[in-house]
Specification:
Layout (H helix, E strand, L loop, with lengths): L4 E5 L6 H14 L7 E5 L5 H7 L6 E5 L16 H6 L4 E4 L2 H5 L5 H14 L2 E6 L3 H5 L3 H12 L5 H5 L2 E4 L13 H19 L8 E4 L7 H6 L5 E4 L6 H8 L2
Parallel strand pairs: 1-2, 1-8, 2-3, 3-4, 4-5, 5-6, 6-7, 7-8
Helix pairs in contact: 1-2, 1-11, 5-7, 7-9
Bound molecules: 2-phosphoglycolic acid.
The site of 2-phosphoglycolic acid has 13 residues, from strand 8.
Length: about 250
């Protein structure tokens, strides 16, 4: 059985002091629950703070929002997968829409990052999603599956089976416009089917998260949709009380 996953993507918010204050408040209210998993993706500077505060909480883990694909070298401003691991991260977001569309990252780079994550022992969470124009042109599945298959290209089947995926339609991120549970389900089912074709029955255990304007009002309905195994939440994860309400959905 897949445990529902609640992942918070803080983006460029909550430096170490704010992250500590958030965690103090959140941990005071959120009791350990065995039937769900909570992941935090703080900015790189706050990873150590968050992972240390979660040390005694096996129900929660910390990830990093981005890595470079090289393990070390002359890449001013970048963070590598081994460094993220050393800071206490267990997961990494790869190919988030802001990385793809603001920083122009390519499918090939996402694939290199997935492989770098595995070399360092991090679990990659590969994010995929179409632009509004692509949806309007009827291209959603083609775009999403292209991103997906490129991202896992030449990755061992056993490793793919240990990954997570997030479907985040670009037009729904930070816009207040959410995909309907039906829209989400349709794409999630296509992702699940593509993963099954790629690696067989083991694909059944792979969590597929939905992201894009998830909030305390819509999280429960989205999570009830077929093939939606969790949520990846940006704006609505920034406030400890609001995040507590979503995680208790
Ligand atoms: P949002 O962001 O919840 O603010 O739409 C989601 C994401 O980018 O992961």
């Amino acid at each position: 059985m897949k445990l529902p996953i609640f992942a918070a993507n803080w983006k460029m918010h909550h430096g170490p002091s704010d992250a500590r204050a958030f965690m103090k408040s959140f941990l005071a209210h959120y009791r350990r629950q065995q039937d769900r998993k909570v992941l935090f993706f703080p900015n790189a500077l706050s990873v150590t703070t968050v992972s240390e505060l979660l040390r005694d909480r096996p129900d929660m883990e910390t990830g990093i929002q981005n890595i470079h694909w090289e393990d070390k070298g002359a890449f001013t401003g970048e963070n590598s997968a081994p460094m993220a691991r050393d800071s206490g991260a267990t997961h990494v977001l790869v190919g988030h829409s802001e990385r793809r569309h603001v920083f122009h990252e390519t499918d090939v780079e996402s694939n290199l990052k997935v492989k770098a994550a595995f070399r360092a022992g991090l679990t990659p969470v590969l994010c995929v999603g179409e632009l509004l124009a692509e949806r309007d042109a009827g291209d959603t599945e083609r775009v999403v599956l292209r991103q997906l298959l490129a991202g896992i290209s030449e990755v061992e089947e056993g490793q793919v089976a240990s990954m997570m995926f997030a479907y985040e339609p670009v037009w729904a991120i930070g816009t207040g416009r959410t995909a309907t549970p039906q829209d989400a389900s349709t794409v999630h089912s296509a992702i699940a089917a593509a993963l099954k074709t790629a690696i067989g029955e083991r694909a059944a255990g792979i969590p597929i998260l939905y992201g894009g304007s998830v909030n305390r009002g819509n999280a429960t309905t989205l999570l009830a949709a077929p093939d939606v195994d969790g949520v990846l939440v940006g704006g609505a994860s920034l406030d400890a009380d609001g995040w507590n309400a979503i995680v208790c959905a």
